[in-house]
Amino acid sequence: MVQHEVTIHQGTLRGSTGTDLRGDTFLKFQGIPYAKPPLGDLRFKTPVPPENGLAFSMPPKKGAFVTNETFSKSSSGGLSFFFDYPKLKQFWLPEDEKDLRPVMFWIHGGVFILQHGGEELHSPDFLITEDVVVVTINYRLGLLGFISSDDTSLDIPGSAGLKDQVMALKWVQEKIDKFGGDPNDVTVFGQSAGAVSVHLMVLSPLAKGLFHKAIAQSGSAINPWVQARKGVKRVAEVMGLEGADDKTVFDAVTKKSKEEILGLQEIMDDVFMFLIKYIGLVIETNSKEPSMTEEPINIMKSGNFSQVQFLTGCTSLEGATLDLVVKSIDFNLILY
């Protein structure tokens, strides 16, 4: 397999080739860290930029973005991007800005609990034929990405998964031109919870200036399931720590492995699915860098959001994913 390497300040990225629907070759880089791994003291917290030496590209294979099944309750850091490869014998880069291509930045759906950004679900084979650079991302899901606390001493204000998306957009702004993408022509688009994320990026002060167009497919920031309530209290109940303060609960959760946290989430899915949602957006009133400081509907009314071209609607075949879902998870988990 032909491979190509590009060196940026983080280190070296290794790419490989794929074939689009027309039979043309395109170049792809996968599994690129856009933030430090959210482990140890960084678990549940706002992402921080990656260190030098953390830039690499995973080989294209199933599971490059998550550690288990196709519809996963896991998440792992990394983004992927794909673009045409016009010269088979020589790695091509644009000679000047006029040769840069529009960037399509995809955010996957899944209720902020399921799915991933890998090729198994979101292949670029069709879109890549339109002379664009396609970017897909992973972001923290479930408890790992959306648990929060009002205790400011813990520095866990919530919406870490959404802040991962912002961090990935920053990476694109800084580096996508090295791969033929135009940082001044970035379109964020997504479906279901990904569409919600797109709308939230439009409304969030953190994402201003990081993209220029937005497409929300079957999702909105004002959907009733978007916001989370009492997440840490739900965790405490399941762990037998009801009545404990947030620090005690988070100390106990932080000591658990990722697999144990996912198991805890499985229990919460069964017990609390039809109660107030525990995973999703929180309005941050005491955060240093809040993703959202007001109710989305109030921000929309105020007009104080990114004034970008915005296209929204419903996808015609959204139910096609259900064939995969019902084979792997409890049907109740797809109600949202």
UniProtKB/TrEMBL annotation:
Family that this chain belongs to: Belongs to the type-B carboxylesterase/lipase family.
Molecular-function annotations in GO: carboxylic ester hydrolase activity
Domain Carboxylesterase type B span(s) in chain numbering: 4-321
Keyword ATP-binding: no
Annotated organism of origin: Zophobas morio
UniProt EC number: 3.1.1.-
Signal sequence residues: none
Keyword check for Hydrolase: yes
Protein name (record): Carboxylic ester hydrolase
A Pfam entry, by short name: COesterase
Lineage, uppermost ranks: Eukaryota, Metazoa, Ecdysozoa, Arthropoda, Hexapoda
InterPro entries cross-referenced by the UniProt entry: AB_hydrolase_fold, CarbesteraseB, Carboxylesterase_B_AS
Gene3D superfamilies listed in its UniProt record: alpha/beta hydrolase
UniProt KW keywords: Disulfide bond, Glycoprotein, Hydrolase, Serine esterase
